[in-house]
Design brief:
Layout lengths: L1 E5 L3 H13 L4 E5 L22 H4 L4 H6 L2 E4 L4 E5 L4 E4 L4 E3 L2 E4 L3 E3 L12 E3 L3 H11 L4 E5 L3 H12 L3 E6 L11 H13 L3 E4 L3 E6 L2 E6 L4 E3 L2 E4 L3 E3 L15 E2 L11 E3 L4 E2 L8 H15 L12 E6 L2 E7 L7 E7 L2 E8 L2 E8 L5 H10 L4 H6 L3 H7 L1
Parallel strand pairs: 1-2, 1-7, 2-3, 7-19, 9-16, 10-11, 10-16, 11-12, 18-20
Antiparallel strand pairs: 4-5, 5-6, 8-17, 13-14, 14-15, 21-22, 22-25, 23-24, 24-25
Length: about 400
């Protein structure tokens, strides 16, 4: 059997690893646009303005690929897939045959159509190459702007602030982390971020990037923020070019069923490129679980994907934020606790914990995630506890 995996992120690696665990003989090939083996993409924003050890970023050492007889083609682009002939064409002219294909081609940064977004000094960070280019450019510069106040945007601003840069975060929404926190929690996060020396401009939209090389960002309200470089952190979009002009069904992403299978036999998709139940999360934990499911089904071990509830963690000195599950259910019963910069809010429905926000102290995050995922009946605990802190201590 010939397994071809398009992609080199955690979904692709998990697929390869789970095929090999259950099949020691078949040929497995991973194809990547990047020049690196699979690395911890979630760490990228922490590397901005910093020196880093490449070896420590790899998920698996080179020896692992050799020991498991997994071939990796780096710096190769897939030009087309022919699902009838079961072949993949690469940009170097080579044609590869497959019996089973797994598309885990990941995603790219979305850069809003802002005037001047293609100028020198404007970046989006989605790969190690992006980090290296940005770090090289900003050497000797002083002021930076991050457009986007989500988790990755705040981590990027923090990393650069630590490296001595004067940083401003511009966020379209009127508060930080609107997907991960409620209003009260956002205010606590904002205070901590401001106290760390990062400037915040909330409820603002970028109109234009001026100068060449760039010298400022003009907002839609006419205000101007000076900067030597700009980083867009405005979400991601699936890399669907590899399946264009094929009969593989696509909506926002590649449509997959409970087994991560596409509408075509022997073709699977996983990670940021896959759309399951109308959703694309773009999260490491989801990609990991989907990659494993795709790999097991590809090798003939029928496995239903158990949907991973989104959870996210922001960990920068001075502010730890953990958010998981459904924190916007209007019908949920809420339990709150606040003491200084420590804030907990738990969301329960039908005696089950369905969501949580932890700020300032996230030591209980793993336990909370397990309880949310398990759907345990907590009736006795919820009725006997007076606030979120007590519930967390008893869980």
């Amino acid at each position: 059997m010939n397994f071809i995996i398009i992609g080199n992120g955690i979904a692709a690696l998990q697929a390869a690893e789970n095929i090999r665990k259950n099949d020691s003989q078949s040929k497995i090939m991973m194809i990547s646009r990047e020049k690196y083996n699979t690395y911890f993409r979630v760490k990228l924003s922490h590397l901005l303005g910093q020196q880093f050890d490449l070896e420590k970023l790899y998920v698996k050492p080179q020896q692992w690929y050799e020991d498991n007889n997994i071939d990796v083609l780096l710096k190769r682009n897939v030009l087309s897939v022919d699902t009838d002939k079961k072949i993949v064409k690469l940009d170097d002219g080579s044609i590869l045959e497959y019996d089973v294909l797994i598309v885990a081609s990941g995603s790219h940064s979305f850069v809003p159509p802002v005037k001047g977004n293609n100028k020198k000094g404007v970046y989006a960070v989605r790969s190690l190459d992006d980090v290296e280019k940005l770090n090289d450019y900003i050497n000797g510069k002083r002021k930076g702007i991050v457009v986007g106040g989500g988790l990755l945007g705040l981590e990027a601003a923090w990393s650069l602030r630590q490296a001595g840069y004067d940083m401003t975060v511009i966020e379209f929404f009127p508060r930080l982390l609107p997907k991960q926190s409620d209003e009260e929690g956002s205010m606590i996060i904002e205070k901590i971020i401001k106290d760390s020396g990062i400037n915040l401009v909330l409820g603002a939209e970028v109109e234009e990037i001026t100068g060449d090389p760039i010298d400022s960002v003009v907002l839609k309200n006419g205000n101007k923020v000076n900067a030597d470089f700009v980083i867009f952190s405005a979400g991601v979009r699936p890399n669907l070019d590899v399946v264009s002009n094929t009969s593989i069904k696509v909506n926002k992403g590649i449509l997959v069923d409970d087994f991560m299978k596409t509408n075509i036999d022997n073709i699977y998709a996983a990670g940021d490129v896959a759309e399951y139940n109308g959703k694309i999360y773009g999260l490491w934990t989801v990609a990991l679980a989907q990659g494993k499911t795709a790999g097991l089904n590809a090798v003939g071990i029928k496995t239903v994907y158990k949907e991973v509830l989104p959870s996210s963690t922001l960990k920068i000195t001075g502010v730890d934020v953990f958010s998981s599950g459904d924190i916007f259910d209007d019908g949920a019963v809420t339990y709150r606790y606040k003491n200084g910069d420590i804030y907990y809010k738990l969301f329960a429905k039908e005696n089950k914990l369905i969501g949580a926000i932890l700020i300032g102290d996230i030591t209980n995050s793993t336990k909370v995630k397990k309880v949310i995922d398990s759907g345990l009946d907590l009736k006795e605990l919820l009725t006997s506890s007076k606030d979120a802190k007590e519930i967390l201590e008893k869980i």
